[in-house]
Amino acid sequence: MQYLKSVKVPKGESVVISKDIAAKISRDLKPISKQLGGSVNNTAAGLANLGTRVSFLGSVAYDNLGKQYIEAIEKYRIYSLIRKVNSSKETGVVNIIISPDGERTMLAYPGISRDLPPLDYKIIKDYKIILLEGYLWHEDGDDDALKEFLHIAKNNEVITAFTFGSYKQVKKYRKKWSELIKEIDIIFSDREQIYALFKNTNWDEVVNNLQKYDTIFVVTDNKNGAHIIYRDQKIYIPAYNIKYITDTTGAGDQFAAGFLYGFLNNYDLEKCRQFGTKTAAKIIQQIGAKPLKITKLNSVKFLFKQYTLK
User: Fold this and answer.
1) What pLDDT is stored for residue 161 in this prediction?
2) What is the mean pLDDT of residues 278-295?
């Protein structure tokens, strides 16, 4: 696409941009849709739509976008732990450019979102799972708050989950994350990110490495489906044959929502993968990374009715 070439971003990439470039994109392109965003927030919305009680922690600025963000999150029945921060930074924004084939390219200005608000860590013990995202790792020291989350969670037997975020993030923080994943129960990644983590593109060798960890690895593989690797278990997940792919934004986030829904309800990994595949299949048939229709608790029945179980 011509515009991506003009800002020197490869199609399908997820990159961090400056405030100035974000402003330029806003001037150059008219959005077809504005939605509440963020990887973990997308997953939280998907879980809430399946009837799960969820909370979301993050930071916004004292600006219009921050106000809109807080108002929007309530519509998804997500309990807000968002804090407004008085700063020169603005509320973060992600510009997503969708190619004709449905591939998304993400240009993110993090703004204030990197600055996690002060929190009474004791509340972590009230949750079954905490989900953290790799997009927060951008500068030295960004991992301090997340490490504290993990430490408190482990001490209180709270399940920990982590999403890598992007290929570039994995390459940049490979050494740190190689150690970090030893402390995490569930990892969400895609195939290229896992290759980057081990500096190895031999899938069989990578799988052997993953099986050495006491961690559940959920590895998506675009149109080829996904894999779940946990100790001696290897589950291949074929993708549903979707005739028209509208937008791949949030496919991984919604896969995580479906998977975690199954996990929270004590289903085995095979059933968890079915939920994940269904929620991902549904989201790529619309514009945006969250369910467009905020439904009641019949979402699960709808998914099973719409997509035949395999």
Assistant:
1) 96
2) 77
Strand ranges in 149-260 using DSSP code E only, listed in sequence order: 159-163, 186-190, 216-220, 226-230, 233-237
Report which residue type is found at 289: A
| Closest alpha carbon to 264 in 74, 46, 17 | 46
Torsion of CA 68, 73, 79, 81, to 10 degrees: -50
pLDDT score of 180: 87
Please report the pLDDT score of residue 187 as a whole number. Answer: 97
The Cα–Cα gap between 264 and 255 comes to 14
CATH topology of domain 2-306: UDP-N-acetylmuramoyl-L-alanine:D-glutamate ligase (3.40.1190)
Question: For residue 193, how many C-alpha atoms fall within 13 Å in the half-sphere facing its CB?
Answer: 25
Read off the pLDDT band of 292 (50, 70, 90). low
Distance (Å, rounded) from C-alpha 255 to C-alpha 261? 10
Question: Mind listing the pLDDT tens digit for each residue in 250-259?
Answer: 788 999 999 9
Between β-strands 93-98 and 55-56, what pairing exists: parallel, antiparallel or unpaired? unpaired
CA dihedral (146, 278, 215, 164) positive or negative: negative
Question: Domains of the chain: which residue ranges?
Answer: 2-306
CA–CA gap between residue 190 and residue 255 (Å, rounded): 11
Model confidence pTM above 0.70: yes
Q: Is 200 helix (H, G, I), strand (E, B) or coil?
A: coil
Percent of the chain with pLDDT over 70: 90
Residue 49, amino acid: N
Dihedral-angle region of residue 289 (phi above 0 means left; psi in -120 to 50 means alpha; beta otherwise): alpha
Please give the C-alpha separations between residue 132 and each of 11, 41, 192, in angstroms, as whole numbers.
26, 10, 20
User: Is 227 within 8 Å of 234 (Cβ atoms)?
Assistant: yes
